[in-house]
């Protein structure tokens, strides 16, 4: 299935999609592509908010975008690899039977599958600004992301390799 079809299917059953991704075999290039795609989408989602901030505060937009690009595309993937490794160690403490690749794939796929809500949050932050709507959009993203990640992690730790 295509990535966009899998993203839509994840909203109906995240465990089934994760099982299908795991059954394709371990491909670190696929996991890296997922996390990098999310980081690029996350950078794009920040642009309306950065433009709003630059306009309101009289700041240089290019400087804000440069900092966001550095953090989103170059530093954030390293953080996500560390987070995936920690989730793998925690799963092992609870007798998880999966491997590190499954933990990485679960986190990276949850991030990418929840990316439409990150874009929504970015639009709300840029066009409406801080307030209840932005808080709701952010909480909605966090809840959906956590659901996808925990469902995927559970599936990945069932797999005994």
Q: Which structural class do the helices and strands define?
A: mainly alpha
Shape, per Cα inertia axes? elongated
The largest β sheet comes out as:
none
List the total number of helices. Answer: 7
Low-confidence stretches: none
Distance between the termini: 24 Å
Structure summary, number of beta strands: 0
Percent of residues in helices comes to over 70%
SSE ordering: HHHHHHH
Structural summary, described in words:
The two termini are 24 Å apart. The model has no long low-confidence stretch (mean pLDDT 94). The protein has 161 residues and is mostly helical.
Secondary structure elements and pairings:
Blueprint: H1 3-10, H2 14-23, H3 28-57, H4 61-93, H5 100-113, H6 115-127, H7 132-158
Helix pairs in contact: 2-5, 2-7, 3-4, 3-5, 3-6, 4-5, 5-7, 6-7
Summarize this, please?
The chain is mainly alpha-helical and 161 residues long. It has helices at residues 3-10, 14-23, 28-57, 61-93, 100-113, 115-127, 132-158. The mean pLDDT is 94.
Keywords:
single chain, 161 residues, mainly alpha, elongated
